[in-house]
Amino acid sequence: MEYPELLEEIFHAVQPYVGKGKVADYIPALAQIPADKFGMSLCLMDGREYVIGDADEPFSIQSVSKVFSLVLALNRLGSQVWERVGKEPSGNAFNSLVQLEYENGIPRNPFINAGALVVTDWLLGCSVDPTIELLAWLREATSNPGIHVDLEVADSEWEHRDRNAALTHFMKSCGNIHSSVDRVLRTYFEHCSIAMSCRDLARAGLLLAGHGKSPRCSDRFLTRSQAKEVNALMLTCGTYDAAGDFAFRVGLPGKSGVGGGILAIIPNLMSIAVWSPALDAKGNSMAGVEALERFTTLTGISVF
Ligand SMILES: NC(=O)CC[C@H](N)C(=O)O
């Protein structure tokens, strides 16, 4: 089956799941997003691109930004990053506090909130403005100069920051946060509030399909080993305490966000982005996971 027909088939098959689940409302600005959206984009290493549905509508990438923050930190700092954040799945919710005290303020991995807050702190230690650097890279990788931080979402996250503030304060008490808590939180919320479409997200993901060198960018951004590390972490930790289920059903490295987006990588071949805002109980897009499962089932392509 050709990709355009495949996308049509997936689009129709997932309709019963679109709007099922719950749009994230603990960030009030996200609660206003209509639940019935669905978009999907495939961006291939050879330059072909296929989209369906609401694939050109920007949405809040939320935790998908944790991939890009980590990529930037690895680019700037290399393996030093792992001195302050682990590489193991947490088995807990993305915003859980419980492991941190047992594990001396070292988060399990960079794809839960605590881990991304440490990565943000790393970035603040080596860059005057990590958000500007992140946006610059994303704009180049997507050829979309319009990619921006949605300030309404960032402000909404800031106003309801108690849990992320608790995580950051606790890690600071353990010596694992070096900048001020407010600065770390503000920067982390800016990254979560970046607005991108599925088309943008799939384009940005080509860096990871391309083992650290996106065919869309002039420079290699990560070494081959670093790209392997990021993909491995996406597979094992990218969907929080549902990572086992996601690997079982989809069989690809993937990173979700509570905005309803998921980025999935097929090394050497393509990057896939899906978006549908209604979430399952673990905070992953219900229709998005369904669509990816159908993609790997119908094509027979996965990393396994
Ligand atoms: N899982 C997510 O997408 C969570 C990101 C969100 N900004 C938070 O910190 O709670």
Automatic annotation (TrEMBL):
EC number of the protein: 3.5.1.2
Substrates-to-products reaction catalysed: L-glutamine + H2O = L-glutamate + NH4(+)
Pfam families: Glutaminase
Ranges that cross the membrane: none
Entry-linked InterPro entries: Beta-lactam/transpept-like, Glutaminase
Entry keyword set: Acetylation, Hydrolase
Example GO molecular function: glutaminase activity
Top EC class, one word: hydrolase
Subunit details: Homotetramer.
Family per record: Belongs to the glutaminase family.
Protein name stated in the entry: Glutaminase
UniProt source species: Pokkaliibacter plantistimulans
Lineage, uppermost ranks: Bacteria, Pseudomonadati, Pseudomonadota, Gammaproteobacteria, Oceanospirillales
